[in-house]
Amino acid sequence: PGYGGEIVAIAGIASDGTLAGAQVLDHSETVGLGARIAGESFLSQFKGQDKEMADVDAISGSTISSRSFINLMAKAFEAFEILNGGEG
């Protein structure tokens, strides 16, 4: 869940364990604030990240929405690890 409701997203994780890309499919976040999670300036920072997501920043003024999306990406990495024989 985000600030305004459920966030639906998709992530592509490459075989080397880095994010190939991420996209917000649906959300109910506040227009002009939380809705920025669907913008290229926010999403572009995820490409090439590993499960640590060390260089990913939340959006100032919409911390709940951006942290929710970051948590979704963490869940995607957990699923990737499980599918590749890890514990997740």
Coarse shape: globular
Radius of gyration: 13 Å
Mean pLDDT: 95
Query: Strand tally, please?
Result: 2
Seen as an oligomer or otherwise, the chain set is: single chain
Strand content: 15-25%
Low-confidence stretches: none
Query: Distance N terminus to C terminus?
Result: 21 Å
Helix content: 25-40%
Number of helical elements: 2
SSE run: EEHH
Structure explained in plain terms:
- By secondary structure, the chain is an alpha+beta fold.
- It is built from 2 helices and 2 strands.
- The longest helix is centred in the last third of the chain and has 21 residues, at 63-83.
- The model has no long low-confidence stretch (mean pLDDT 95).
Task: Describe the secondary structure blueprint for this structure.
Layout: E1 8-13, E2 19-26, H1 40-43, H2 63-83
Antiparallel strand pairs: 1-2
